[in-house]
Design the sequence.
């Protein structure tokens, strides 16, 4: 179990920076929303939290997968995070630089660290947007770090396979929630990736990832509000649960929300709708609902 807070505030992080905390590494884990023209690395170089490094969620990937954001092998993760100066004992603090949502892809990085056995991981409440709005400093200075050794310990219990997802349509051994917006889920809005039609896996519950935030403040809902939201969506947090989306990013937002509610074993299907639709569109179309939007 983690020894640190899953969500940290701008006040706490500013205090850590001001006192020169040694065992913390801050990562800008921004990955753009679908159809966004945002260039995360360019934005990082223009403005980031002092001391922060840039974390590319695909840099530790398999480098050959036809599907976006697929999780890579442990050795790729070890090499990449070690190059960022991160050891197994480092407290990693993740944040996003996205508008209008404050948090989107940092939970994906959070899940990646968790599945490879890292214990001390936090996410900055509200991301860079909230950090700046509260009057905190930003910089263009890119810190220099020495490469260190990192040892990953893979936890297969945090991931669900394509085969398990296909079988579960009929067996329903676990609940599945989908973090995409209502339009993509119902097939009335096109998917952002070529060759992938909108729709959803049969027996999946739509829980758009934005539901974990307060709609006005764009900060995380309270635990009680989060629990109520999941209940109203038909998700039973006492039962086995997996999370999916379009490409394995917003699924992790829902897993984070459940984690905040005390459910720490949500499994991620990171092949997501892209893989499920592509593999089944000719072989087993009865396993999904396909929408009409193009």
Sequence:
């Amino acid at each position: 179990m983690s020894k640190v807070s899953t969500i940290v505030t701008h006040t706490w992080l500013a205090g850590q920076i001001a006192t020169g905390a040694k065992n913390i590494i801050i990562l800008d884990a921004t990955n753009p929303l679908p159809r966004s023209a945002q260039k995360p690395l360019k934005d990082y170089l223009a403005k980031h939290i002092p001391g922060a490094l840039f974390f590319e969620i695909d840099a530790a990937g398999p480098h050959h997968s036809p599907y976006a954001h697929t999780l890579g092998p442990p050795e790729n993760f070890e090499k990449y995070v070690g190059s960022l100066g991160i050891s197994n004992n480092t407290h990693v603090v993740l944040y996003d630089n996205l508008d209008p949502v404050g948090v989107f892809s940092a939970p994906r990085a959070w899940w990646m660290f968790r599945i490879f056995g890292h214990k001390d991981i936090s996410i900055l409440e509200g991301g860079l947007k909230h950090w700046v709005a509260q009057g905190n400093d930003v910089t263009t200075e890119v810190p220099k770090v020495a490469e260190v050794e990192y040892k990953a310990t893979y936890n297969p219990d945090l991931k669900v396979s394509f085969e398990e997802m296909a079988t579960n349509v009929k067996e329903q051994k676990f609940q599945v929630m989908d973090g995409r917006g209502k339009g993509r889920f119902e097939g009335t809005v096109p998917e952002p990736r070529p060759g992938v039609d909108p729709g959803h896996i049969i027996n999946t519950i739509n829980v758009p990832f934005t539901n974990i935030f307060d709609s006005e403040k764009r900060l995380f809902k309270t635990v009680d509000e989060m629990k109520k939201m999941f209940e109203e969506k038909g998700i039973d947090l006492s039962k086995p649960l997996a999370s999916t989306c379009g490409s394995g990013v917003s699924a992790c937002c829902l897993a984070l929300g459940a984690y905040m509610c005390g459910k720490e074993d949500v499994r991620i299907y990171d092949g997501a709708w892209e893989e499920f639709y592509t593999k089944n569109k000719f072989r087993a179309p009865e396993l999904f609902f396909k929408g009409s939007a193009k």
